[in-house]
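Internal ticket #5521
Category: modeling
Description: The requester needs a full-assembly model to guide mutagenesis choices. All entity lines are attached below as received. Residue total reported by intake: 589.
Assigned to: D.W.
Attached entities:
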Amino acid sequence: MSHGAPAPQPLAKICADVREGRVKALDRVNSFLAVIAAKDGEIHAFNEVHADAARARAEAIDATVQRGGNPGPLAGAVIAVKDNIVMREGKTTCSSRMLANYRSPFNATVIERLEAAGAIFIGKTNLDEFAMGSSTENSAFGPTRNPWDTTRVPGGSSGGSAAAVAARFCDAALGSDTGGSIRQPAALCGCVGFKPTYGRVSRYGLVAFGSSLDQIGPFAHSVEDAALVYDAIAGRDELDSTSADAACAPLAAKTREPLAKLRVGVPREYRSDANSPAVAEVLEKSIAAARAFGAEIVDIDLPLTDIGISTYYVIAPAEASSNLARYDGIRYGHRAKLEPGEDLEDLYSKSRAEGFGPEVQRRIMLGTYVLSSGYYDAYYKRALQARRLIKDEFDRAFAKCDVVLGPTSPVPAFPFGGKKDPLSMYLCDVYTVNTNIAGIPGISINGGFAEEGGRRLPVGIQLQAPAFAEETLLRAAAMFERA
Amino acid sequence: MSDSTPEALTDADILKIARLSRLSLAESQVGTVRTQLSSILGHIAKLQALPTEGVEPMAHPMKIVNRLGADEPKACMPVEDLLRNAPAVEDRYLAVPKVLGEGGGA
């Protein structure tokens, strides 16, 4: 459903075609590279395109097929990777000057798993520096443009991955979601973005931002495609002690089976005056569609929706200030030049001031402040108490419904520079942060379109489900997708 | 640890926070940072109105306990790979500016 181009075939079918020799992986890679060469100058979804590595990998997959081997369930799937997930191939920059030349000595677990499943990596995608932002304007290497309207942001922080899928630069992409960084750009770019339950997907090799909130997940053209990628990356990893033991049955094929008695909860707080008229209209249309496909609509209350931003912007910066303490100019990353008489502390302070952009510095300072002596109880402890209350509120809601439906973002894609005040940017995350705070799964799919400035802009709807209820979430999302 | 609502941030507060954050901050930036942080903290102040008496803080979404791994030696990453990203290396070591001042030897 992007820019009038015909809908892509299901990824499962494409991979079967590659596996059975009907389609060459190399031809697919070459055609994606041609689209990227033609269009990415304008979109800037990629920080780095791995053309040679992708071709070599495609040739190896085609050779395996020719020998009668099976390259795996994702044979020939072409995947873009957010540039805060480490790969041996190329650089991992987090779109920061701090890591502008960083080359990882290892692959993230998700990279190892996708490779084992037969996937091909096409390159690393742009993001808000260290995944901090909602527009990709905070990249040290320049913003990504929304393929639907290049005067507008793609959302963030995984804006490059969302734009790469929307612009048909790849079959699917990986992103990371700490407070909405997969779901919000998916909504603004009109693709599917799925954040699994905290702990479902190994964070080993994801550059840490907010460790109790971060989760890797896929962008794709459809719910089923997203599930196919998720199936390959989910599951316990001994390299991530917070990865969950819970069983992961394959879900991709299951997304075709509708749920018989789906109860869809719609929180009163999500029907907010803050929603743009088009977003409000798409939500009501989706509610009507759910009734039409036989779901029961349940009015619910999530009164703490409004406290989410305050809670998140204490917890996430607190964790970030701790996680980003590792960038000190010593072992890796940017190192400042010292003047005579300057000491080791000057090296730290100058390297960090030169290496980090304004938003990252702001969040480090905010996190340092809320954790500092005298303010810890007033901010951090209180935010952790709010976190418990938010989680309890979701638990009570899920006693009445199977999934919670609402907008992903209160507004469609906004123009560059449209949210200059940091707080106004933070408020974009009102519907997505509580998912991470509670650790539950969420998915954004396209729900319709807005007309702004003579352009059609995608509007996303979000579904949330209880922890580890990915099967319900994805099957429900596919029902909305088909409606 | 006070439980008080903090007062408005001063320039001195900003310089202290920057120092604790190990971020060198130019004098000219202090005002902007103070305005931005104050605006964010003003919004976050909503938390103060939330009744939290007796609520157990939740630091993490998962009920997990420490996991013990098998105590088996495994191959380490090659030192050369790890040093490849270092800004300054001498021999097989990371090079840093002198840590201790004159006469401050341990």
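Resolution: model delivered.
Comment from assignee: Chain B touches chain A through 57 residues (CB under 8 Å).
Ticket closed.
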